[in-house]
Design a protein that fits this description.
This protein is an all-alpha fold. It folds into two domains: 1-48, no CATH class; 50-122. The chain contains four helices and no strands. The protein is elongated.
């Protein structure tokens, strides 16, 4: 398992599949760079990501995102009362900011993919 319990191979596979959907280029380069530099196992071209595992992955990440935001709010409240260490507060706020940026980026990609699908002719 990777950072915060996220399976890196599943994340890379989902990213590569999304790039294929929206016409991204350099899949092999991305795959080799990520798996080589981070020591992650190989990702097969047919990653076998099915609808249920993707929805589980998405649901789990959304839950972790909400938990991160709640933790940040709690730390900010503790900072106001003086009950928290400044380093812990900064780390929690930075985690929340990164989480929010990631959620917005995923949302934008999903909307873009949906719009591309809607433009396809049947």
């Amino acid at each position: 398992m990777g950072i915060d319990g996220v399976n890196p191979n599943a994340a890379i596979g989902a990213y590569l599949n999304s790039q294929r959907i929206v016409g991204g280029e350099g899949d092999a380069t991305i795959q080799s760079a990520v798996s080589g530099s981070m020591g992650i196992g190989q990702v097969s071209e047919s990653s076998g990501v099915n609808a249920s595992s993707f929805s589980d992955l998405l649901e789990g990440n959304i839950e972790r995102s909400v938990d991160t935001m709640k933790r940040s709010e709690e730390m900010a409240a503790k900072a106001v009362t003086g009950d928290a260490n400044l380093i812990d507060v900064i780390q929690a706020v930075t985690d929340a900011e990164l989480t929010l940026q990631t959620v917005v980026a995923v949302r934008d990609k999903m909307i873009s993919a949906y719009q591309e699908i809607m433009r396809m002719q049947i």
